[in-house]
Amino acid sequence: MSLPSGLLSPEENELIRGLMTPKRQQSLSTTVARLHLASPSQGQGWTVLVTGVVCFVKDFDRRSYYIVALDMDRGCQVWEQEIYSEMVYRHSQPCFHSFEAEREVAGISFADEREAQDFLNAVRWGRKEELATKAKQ
Predict the structure, then answer these.
(1) Predicted confidence (pLDDT) per residue in 25-48, tens digit
(2) Which of 10, 21, 45, 106 has the maximal Cβ count within 10 Å?
(3) Are strands 90-93 and 64-71 parallel, antiparallel or unpaired?
(4) Whole-model pTM?
(5) Which residue, among 113, 53, 58, 49, has the nearest Cα to 82 in the 3D structure?
(6) Residue 3 falls inside a structural domain
């Protein structure tokens, strides 16, 4: 069962559950947010990729955790980043977190401070689980 956002209606939370593959993906944190991207090589500031929902997802098929951005207007996933062991997840402000993604730096601007803290806790827990699993291999 995916965890819903308290800022969304039951219908919107149901749409998000529908975007997850049943029994294969689970959102451990769902939050209303804006996803920003910045390319260090281009030297330009942040650009907004989407204002919508960001989820911290456990993907059972791929055996990993992902940060996923959803466009609620279009009802689709628009971006994802796998959590990797060397990832440094920063929370420089209560409602703004950032990390290095595959090709750029990503920033998440949260609509709610409590949901931002819940998201941070989910990321910390997921990274801890991921590291523990890799240590057993």
Answers:
(1) 999 999 999 999 998 776 678 999
(2) 106
(3) unpaired
(4) 0.91
(5) 58
(6) no
